[in-house]
Amino acid sequence: MFKDITLGKFSYDKGGQIYLAPGDNMEYGLESSSCMHELFHAHLALASNVGMLMHLIELELNSEQEDLQYITDLIRPREALYECTRTVQEVYANSLELLWVEENYGIEVRNQVYAKKTIDYKEYLDISRRNWDNVEETIENRKKKINKLCISVLDMDILAEQFWLWLQEPTRLGEIIADRLNYAFTKQECVKDSRKLNQDEIIELAKKKFNYLGDRLEEGFQYSKKHLNQNLTELLLENVKVFDYSELGITEGKQYDSKCGAVGVVKVLHISDGSVGTCIIQHFMEEGIYEIVELDKSKMHEILKEKRYVIVPGDDFLFNKNEAKCEEINDKIKVVLLDTVRDFKKWVQNIMEYEEIYIGDINEKGAENFFTVIYFRKRKCDKVIYMFPTLSIIANNIFEEMQIAKQVKYPGNGMGFYNIFSAFNDWGNILKVLKETISFVTKSKGNIIHIDNPCSKLLNPAKFVIGDNIFKIVGKNYFYINAVLPTLQTEAEPFWILMEFENGENNGNIKCETKIVEDIESGENTLGIVYFYDKSSAENYRKRMVRENPELINYQAVGMDEVFWLEVKRMLQMKKIAMIFVRKNAIEGICNDGEQFEYLRLLEMKKR
Length: 608
Known about the structure:
Elements: E1 8-11, E2 17-20, H1 22-28, H2 31-47, H3 49-61, H4 68-105, H5 107-115, H6 119-132, H7 139-154, H8 161-167, H9 170-187, H10 199-209, H11 214-225, H12 232-237, E3 240-241, E4 251-252, E5 263-269, E6 276-284, E7 289-294, H13 297-303, E8 309-313, E9 317-318, E10 323-324, E11 333-337, H14 341-354, E12 357-361, E13 371-378, E14 384-391, H15 392-401, E15 408-409, H16 427-442, H17 456-469, H18 478-484, E16 496-502, E17 505-510, E18 512-516, E19 525-531, H19 535-548, E20 555-559, H20 562-575, E21 578-583, E22 586-591, H21 594-607
Parallel strand pairs: 2-3, 4-7, 8-11, 11-14, 12-15, 19-21
Antiparallel strand pairs: 1-2, 5-6, 6-7, 9-10, 12-13, 13-14, 16-17, 16-20, 18-19, 21-22
């Protein structure tokens, strides 16, 4: 049995928010059933009249208004409805969860899940045992019956004034709902006065009972009609969060402790005087403890001097400027923590609209882990890394929806995933930041690298790759150089070149040519990188080149953007290599001066 453990939560906020605790769910192996349990809560809330009313109250509370008395008047009935409907919700979610487990894993596993339920949950299940434990009936019929009975309990006439009078007396309303629940499962029939409200009646209710909501509902219903044919479970999955600061169990700390792991920087509002303070949340991985410490902003830089990076909430980060709102930490690498599907999709879309994105999934492709963490960054900004903890199914759905599945890199497949972390420039540092950030968002206790840690499976692929490479001798700029190499998605700024790829990744080899130069003084040949004004010219040159020498087939046309040009420019100066312009498969010009070529590059950029 579980005591004092939150495996998941459902709230009516923002259309129904679901929270799943990664660490505890992975520890007990209940990830899937916990998720379905919360989805069933969400489904009943959307499918019943009383559930719809609770959503309306939340929408009204989230509207832009400052009437504190009105807000208080809304909170009272919200809390009353939450308490009065809790039993129905738990009967529904626990019963359908067990049936889902039975359907997917068999009756023995179902019985094991039941055995681990708390005493309270078993009491809820006693109410519906006649239905969920009726093995002579098909699972589908059992699910339909429980669904019908529970919805009928909450399909009360919320338009009637009598209902609103009951709402003023929560104890009385609770008794009435309890009687309806008892009737439904004792008689095994729907409550006789249950009736589903239609769209017009819901709009009428909103206009009659709420100050701000009514005029917005009609537009909302028009929006929802677009999604009528979508799978409800997929829609609800978008509301799942696996990280929430309020679920960390943060305690107040006395001072910064340099022995902590990840450090988050957050803003806090002091209710006493309305001032805003800057605090750090320090995480101690072994104990699973989070402490909040308020710091003097002027001393923050000195206090955190040995920290290579800090975690910043998405709300405290300025996307367009690549800066945190807290200026004192902008000299550090920022790991921007996103916690909702909507924010993740919005930020990925914003990057892709203007530049190339590096994106990776900590789960190996095809892995069966229920949870995952996605990391991504702008190609042109290695000092800001975004992270999004989520469910694997949500990640894969988004990759397909946004058509970026082919761009997503994985830990066990080359350097693509590790290019995201090039600013750390060392295998050991990359492992450290992965270990600390994953531990931070999963509430993991103990050493996340050890196999007995339930969250270690998230880190296993990266751990093995890093372990194989950590003692290899590489140049000091190894990670930086790998990260600036053009990919097949890199846009030309403005020229194109040919580079060699192995297993889908750029290995750094650039196609060069040797040009005999009529130079009386030196009589030397000139070695240079061939470049092109457009992609089609580069591809035509490649075709001829491969015909003449099939061993060069792995060379591909890539855009030379500003990021890579800065590295090429240094190489030109150090190795005395030229830039050779090719048009119509013929060499037409040579530039031996990096600064001169830079001027030419900028001129061409202005034309585009």
